[in-house]
Design brief:
The protein is an all-alpha fold and 105 residues long. The protein is built from 4 helices and no strands.
Amino acid sequence: MGTRVHYPEEIKWKAIEMKQAGYTNREIMETLGIKNKTQIKTWMRWYKNGETHRFSQPVGKQYVWGKGAQELNEMEQLKMQNRQLEAQLEILKKYKELERRWCQK
C-alpha cells in the first residue's frame, strides 16, 4: 500500500498557474516537488470542472459540497474565497522571488 502525500493548497494553485503558463508536467514536478504527474492532471481536472473547493480538503476526504452536507452559507463561501485569494497571492510572491533568483544566475 502506497503512502499518500498531502500537498498544501498553495502548491496546487501554483501547479495550475504554471500549467496554464505553458510549463510541462516534468518542470512543474521538479519546481514544486510533486512526485507524480497524475496528481497535476487530477488538479487540472478539478480546476476545469469548477471543483477548486477540493484543493483544501484532506487526502481521502474528497466529498462534494452540498451533497449530503449542509449548504455553505454566504459567510462561509466568502471566507473560502478569501483563503483561496490569499493563497494565490502568496504563490505569486514566492514565484516572483524565484524568478528574481533565476534572473540573477
